[in-house]
Specification:
The structure is a homotetramer of 232-residue chains.
Chain A: E1 2-4, E2 8-15, H1 18-29, H2 42-50, E3 61-69, H3 70-76, E4 84-87, E5 98-100, E6 109-111, E7 118-120, H4 124-150, H5 155-158, E8 167-174, H6 176-186, H7 200-216, H8 218-226
Parallel strand pairs in A: 1-5
Antiparallel strand pairs in A: 2-3, 3-8, 4-8, 6-7
């Protein structure tokens, strides 16, 4: 059994540059043919973001390979518009014993009221408790899973006992617009016009994706950050 | 702890009649205003289905309330186009100890090759094994969950140990077109033009939904069945 | 030939009440079954709108019948997510000579720069010019259309000469969330957090739709208006 | 004034290879990491197409630049799922006098009944008629447009008189799955499992897109053609 506290986020392929946003926007106004590649695009992209002209941010694509617990994949795949997914199948594969456990940076205790929860780290005793309980529960569940498999029970049946802390892997393809919408909801940021309260585990995935996005499309990302982190 | 083998599917509200399909189609050809309510619509609906004119089947809505294991909800919510969801939250609620266990009608043993699996019931010993292992695994997991809650651990953290066989509940809203697409993939039918191999548990949900659909829109359903169970 | 300056917006059917928003939201937190029908929902709906919990606003549907010029239908049908359409076909029907002409309330002159245009009414001479030119152009185009039809040319070919000011009719089905997104972009409102600059003709359609929406879902509409007219 | 009978279809950028389909599919079964780049993918792609596993065909993107008459753009943009658009704006730009006229290969006369129309070329007299009427109608309309512009009328108002045969330009981004769905409806093919009857003008665009697609993803295209030209 392997216990992990981190998420894997790899950018597998992409087709995403700031210049493409400008090209798509200009077809509306001065015609795509006349685009000058060298022309500065900062002002245009900032204007599009501010005035919520979203469609120019869709003509690109980013494909991520992600490893995260099932509970994170569940929240992730609620994002529908502009997202495509392929996930590891528990029907066709024997799932491997890799499970999520919080590290010391993960606050364990929730205070406040629904919709405005605050988190506190938790005492050393609580941290030890979580480590112990997670390990014990995961071991027990996986033993039951493998026992059933060894007795000929179908994978799709036996997996019922596996916990939502087990890691899964999936491909997720999006465009800059659908990615910014995802980031606006799945990261916490003081400068956001609409504060969100994502679960820490999906935020870890989102932050890693945002880092890739910032590198690929720095001007678009800067405009996103400057305009309240609201997707156009 | 409660063990269930069934799925709950309730039609909460709807706005779906065969006549609406005809009304929407006729706006294309003879004008919506001139629609004659009493005119037979069988021929028109069958023609639309056969020639894959899908959009007239979208001007309606069906809202279902569903209780099913998390593993079923996971597959369900991969359906994006024309679907809306709201699901019970493991972040905001303490999840209740209701778990899925197969009954005697559920084949437990898989034979054949990927993509064309066949199932066999399993021996009495295998059936006893599954019942015993499921119960044991569920009890153990839920005890760990409640222990962590009692020590102040946040629900969203503690839930990591809960199995995908735990029941969740959700609202799902669709239209006749998106529902037929779902049914074509999540039911098994010899008359289907494109055979599917859904997991039995989601098929149970799909069949209950199909029964509601057949009652509400009998002519549309009949045309769907007659034309290879392919969504238009 | 008929000249019109107005838009037709009829609510053909609907399945949309404020209470449904609350019901869908509560499945996340206190369980759908325990919903109390009489409980006030204002606070809950306002909270959902403010914190951008959009999915509870999707479990409903509104079907509109709309008559508007082709140029309006073109802008309208760019709205994809959560929208379904069926439109009168120029391939299957002979299109009728009904055309759009601005009335006196429609400003005719544009000043300012792209993205921040202002409009002025136009002089009496300009108003007479538009009336005269529109009528002349429409008459000429429609005569060419009917001449070609009378000589056996296919409708789908002959229609090439018809202007985008000709009226078309279509069904549009949406839910409260997709409708609010449409309204945020297709109406101009000083209280909007993100000002839009829609063409006046589509705004006329949007305003009529907003009136129907306000009547059906007054609490949702009030929360939309109060929170910057941003769709959740 | 320029009269054109052709469509412009340029592949502006892309991120689409057959190998990507296989990579996405394999994450479900043997893990993305273990993919062998050199392994033949024909069998896998054909299996995915035949059994309608659609999602692996979504992890790629193709961006087209298209010039076509407004009536074609209207039909094109009815495709919603998996499509993104940016179009030349008649509000921000003065539209240029480029119009569509059928060439000799375009059948002008429609016989048969709705849903199963046949076309015949038309007599030389009919061909001369169409050429003459189109030219006359377009000239007249454009003269009225420019006259109004010269008198200070806003572009978004004056354009009402422009015909749907005027050329527009737009960017369209899709993935292989949404493209195949488009092709299945917008091309006519005897080997298709579900025959379609697209208007010839949009079919010209679709055929040019299919040529690009076949070059980029020959194995996927071959599987599409072999399996009844039905999108998975």
């Amino acid at each position: 059994m392997e216990l992990r506290s981190d998420m894997t986020v790899k950018l597998m392929k992409h087709n995403a540059r700031d210049a493409d946003v400008a090209t798509a926007a200009r077809v509306s106004t001065i015609g795509a043919e006349s685009m000058e590649p060298g022309k500065p695009v900062e002002g245009l992209i900032n204007y599009l973001m501010r005035d919520r002209h979203g469609s120019p941010f869709e003509h690109n694509s980013l494909t991520f390979y992600i490893e995260a617990p099932v509970m994170v994949a569940r929240e992730f795949m609620r994002h529908r518009a502009g997202w495509s997914y392929n996930e590891e199948s528990g029907r066709y594969r024997e799932l491997q014993p890799v499970f999520y456990t919080p590290d010391h940076s993960r606050p364990l205790v929730q205070v406040g009221r629904p919709g405005a929860y605050l988190f506190e780290p938790g005492s050393p005793a609580q941290q030890r408790l979580v480590t112990r309980e997670f390990r014990s529960a995961y071991l027990w569940a996986y033993e039951h899973y493998t026992l059933m498999l060894s007795r000929g029970i179908a994978r799709e049946v036996a997996r019922s006992v596996l916990p939502v802390g087990i890691y899964t892997s999936f491909y997720a393809t999006c465009n800059a617009r659908s990615l910014m919408h995802f980031l606006s909801l799945r990261t916490r940021d003081e400068k956001s016009a609409f504060p969100s309260f994502p679960q820490r585990e999906i935020e870890m995935v989102a932050q890693a994706m945002e880092n890739k996005f910032r590198t690929l499309m720095p001007i678009t990302h800067e405009a996103f950050a400057r305009n309240g982190r609201v997707a156009p």
